[in-house]
Amino acid sequence: MRILRDPAALAAEALQRRARGERVGFVPTMGFLHAGHTSLMDIARPRCDWLVTSIYVNPLQFGPTEDLDRYPRDPQGDAEKCSAHGVDVLFMPDTLYAPDHSTTVKVGGLQEVLCGAKRPGHFDGVTTVVARLFGVVQPNLAVFGEKDFQQLAVIRRMVRDLAMGVEVIGGPLVRDADGLALSSRNAYLSPEQRRRALSLSRALRAMAAAAGDGAADPGALLALGAAQLDVDALDYLELRDPDTLAPYLGGPGPVRAFVAARLGPTRLIDNLAIEFTA
Amino acid sequence: MRILRDPAALAAEALQRRARGERVGFVPTMGFLHAGHTSLMDIARPRCDWLVTSIYVNPLQFGPTEDLDRYPRDPQGDAEKCSAHGVDVLFMPDTLYAPDHSTTVKVGGLQEVLCGAKRPGHFDGVTTVVARLFGVVQPNLAVFGEKDFQQLAVIRRMVRDLAMGVEVIGGPLVRDADGLALSSRNAYLSPEQRRRALSLSRALRAMAAAAGDGAADPGALLALGAAQLDVDALDYLELRDPDTLAPYLGGPGPVRAFVAARLGPTRLIDNLAIEFTA
Fold this sequence. Notes:
Chain A is an alpha/beta fold and about 280 residues long. Chain A has helices at about 5-20, 35-45, 75-85, 115-120, 120-135, 150-160, 190-210, 220-230; strands at about 1-5, 25-30, 50-55, 90, 105, 140-145, 165-170, 235-240, 255-265, 265-275.
């Protein structure tokens, strides 16, 4: 595995490979890699000839009061994990933007709810960095985790609308044995906070179980989930269409439950498919 | 020459050609082609293996009171001109956007002055359609006319910021023998308006001549140009840096003069390099 830091060098090599007919796979990350990230590499690996993973803590997607400066980092451990999971090039740019960078890619609608409503500008930062990374890496396919389910929906929309020609693959959320969704931000949690953080997945599972047992009223499901939560602040607990992210108002059709909450200063998110009995 | 209307079919062929190492050239237009457009094809032709021209009157770049509905069209004549200038594929989509298209590409700064100040949202529409067209056509190089000088600057910035990997080439502005900058919108002009429209290029030439003769004060140059104008309404007459589009305040360095004005309902633009004597 090679480590590249220069976007222009990576873009030049990607261009050559594409012109030789190679398939380029891509897993963009912000580093501090865990089994959720490496599962995305395992999805991409058999689907491409050349696998690129990026590690870049993108300042554009952090708000002024968020954790950009203390976001956890472990470049050496990350490189070992990438190498063990078949990555050909680990792209770790020192910076990704020109000093006078002035272009923003914005997806309307989808990015205005859930985390977008709570983190103004966050998804503009995500779509802008992903567009630029796609420009550098020129992937045929890219894998994003379903942990950031809204991010995946927003990126799919951007790729469709701008005809980017990248196959976007969602990788299933990976949990610890006790149910906690893996997140680099779990490193912030005290043992006590980590125990209470289990209430997010517990709430989602309770809702899914009740739906499987015949419960169908959205309000009753949400109340049932909320009763499970043991957090310091709830950002949202919602039922939405997994494709359009429109609020779920009842009836058939695919539904996903989304939760975001804070334990101390740490903001955690989780989501789960809700399947109603016929 | 083939005519294609389906974006997906064009994208699939472009992908195959790129994967075989072919160089794809692209000249995007809104049709009603004149010698300015065909000069761009002549620039692109020897630089690529496969030349695509698009004709699409992009609704996103027209304001609600602008001339979208009456923009002139001549598909048959356009096809003949493209064929005569070596175009391989003429892309004429019926529509280019999904009904729920929701992605916008925005270039800050550069698009806020000159035409951007007078046509709110215009350049967002331009950058969004060009990003999508680049996605479909996957060009190695694209040629844009210097007639739309600000558009060229905005597109160069977008391509750089999003690492699109497209070589953007500016084609020199083409004028009629009497000096009028070629424009599809010249078709709107009455003979009287056309005569008065010559005052745009006359104003720019007067400014360039005075600078060449030693005039250096920006205010005096602008007054000299304005005195030449015979128009119904002046949108702007300005001196700016050709790269950053920052206002020219005097001193050395490259300078470009920009003018936009109305003759009746028709809005015309022109621009010219200003070279000062040492």
